[in-house]
């Protein structure tokens, strides 16, 4: 059997750590998954088991490089953001991989805002809502304040995707997709590190920024290949759409958080938008991407449990409910968490109400990134893209926009593979990376929003 050219992508999520192998047509030809039990840091807070993750990367790569049916041309990484690995000059970690859910000292955060123009100015310039440890730059600021010895010993603070990349490339670098995602490090007005990063002595702790499609020589044992810098997962998931579609679009990436991403809107964030949980990402091309966040997946999960318990149903039952225009016509939007379930005649009616309430929130969140931009298409990927009610409701709420459920197997890993296309793949990028199903507006659900 002749070995086929492939790229390996290490796709590291909070829960699942996966390895994917893509052929030249960007089809997944092999995959492996692992999960680890969290450990605790010195404060007793849960955190990633960095040693286990590092060893798993080596073990997984060893397994795939031993295969005779693959000729591995490249390796790249997609991983969750807002997480820093503090390494010495040899790339060895010096501290735990602190969780972005770790409680952040309010006084320390306020002190930073006060020193650099006040809270509102700071948040607007960095295009980052005040998110505590989720603002990864504040984690490094905290390390300097609370653990000066570790800070002094740190050569670089690497975001997690770049740390994992360094395991195969040996190169310590930064990447714009990790820096540009609610880190509070980047000044979106100046398009460079914010002044506070330099003045607090943090910039010297940030590794050199390399292009997101940069190819570097990699080595694993006797094997050589091209290695990528690694990408923040949200930005990686956008890459297939940016490659496939040139006309302006919005992507609603759904999961626990539903994030509306508009790569064609680079207007500066206003104070009002920041107050409504808007932020900016930087794409793999270094361009601002206006985004809004909605905690809709979490709300859906919790309220489905409440509906199921009230009507004595299995929560799995709601995965197969289809849109009923007749039921929807009698409902008005509101806040579902405040609703008395006894007013509904059935669990199906209650579920329609839940989805209407979520869809209205989604409409308002997505409108924040549209701002009269000439967007003709909205793509929905992730869990809600498979929800018949959600998709029909979006079509009704955006009657002048084409609404599509988009299907991409392992979008973040695929994006990381595509970022290195020129380094390993001599074939053109296939024109059918994304499966689309269009939803048409059918009824006016309410005397609702007009565009």
TrEMBL record:
<dbReference type="InterPro" id="IPR043129">
    <property type="entry name" value="ATPase_NBD"/>
</dbReference>
<feature type="domain" description="Carbohydrate kinase FGGY N-terminal">
    <location>
        <begin position="6"/>
        <end position="193"/>
    </location>
</feature>
<keyword id="KW-0808">Transferase</keyword>
<dbReference type="GO" id="GO:0005829">
    <property type="term" value="C:cytosol"/>
</dbReference>
<dbReference type="Pfam" id="PF00370">
    <property type="entry name" value="FGGY_N"/>
</dbReference>
<dbReference type="InterPro" id="IPR049382">
    <property type="entry name" value="FGGY_C_2"/>
</dbReference>
<dbReference type="GO" id="GO:0005997">
    <property type="term" value="P:xylulose metabolic process"/>
</dbReference>
<comment type="similarity">
    <text>Belongs to the FGGY kinase family.</text>
</comment>
<dbReference type="GO" id="GO:0004856">
    <property type="term" value="F:D-xylulokinase activity"/>
</dbReference>
<feature type="domain" description="Carbohydrate kinase FGGY C-terminal">
    <location>
        <begin position="247"/>
        <end position="421"/>
    </location>
</feature>
<dbReference type="InterPro" id="IPR018484">
    <property type="entry name" value="FGGY_N"/>
</dbReference>
<protein>
    <submittedName>
        <fullName>Carbohydrate kinase</fullName>
    </submittedName>
</protein>
<keyword id="KW-0418">Kinase</keyword>
<dbReference type="Pfam" id="PF21546">
    <property type="entry name" value="FGGY_C_2"/>
</dbReference>
